[in-house]
Specification:
This protein has 116 residues and is mostly helical. 61% of the residues lie in helices and 0% in strands. The protein has helices at 12-21, 37-54, 59-75, 82-92, 96-102, 104-111.
């Protein structure tokens, strides 16, 4: 027996967020990922390559992987629903503090600017 397309029973963080926001009745209308399966597959393969480069002893590859990580954190991250992103971070054991540490170099750009 197959499960419904928008079955969230295996995703406790998403279920909690749906409950808190009162959106349990509109789950079928939520667009979780704004990319095709093919685009997602390509992004996963590219991210795997970036991870391997980051673990390399080659400094050039490590630098490129940092730039690639910036791209994927922004481009792919912006195409995933915030609830799905929160669930993924929870599944991987990554806190918001750790995300800030991983991408601290991006935050520096904005923290040095002053807005009036």
């Amino acid at each position: 027996m197959s499960t419904p397309k928008n079955d969230t029973t295996h995703f406790p963080v998403i279920q909690e967020m749906l409950k808190e926001s009162g959106l349990e009745n509109v789950v079928e209308n939520i667009i979780w990922v704004q990319m095709s399966k093919e685009e997602a597959a390509v992004a996963l393969v590219e991210m795997d390559m970036m991870i391997r480069a980051a673990l390399s002893n080659n400094l050039n590859l490590r630098k490129r992987s940092k730039i690639g990580a910036n791209y994927y954190q922004s481009a792919v991250g912006n195409r995933v629903h915030i609830m799905a992103s929160a669930q993924a971070k929870s599944d991987l054991g990554i806190t918001e503090r750790r995300m800030s540490q991983l991408f601290a170099h991006k935050d520096k750009v904005f923290s040095s600017q002053k807005y009036e």
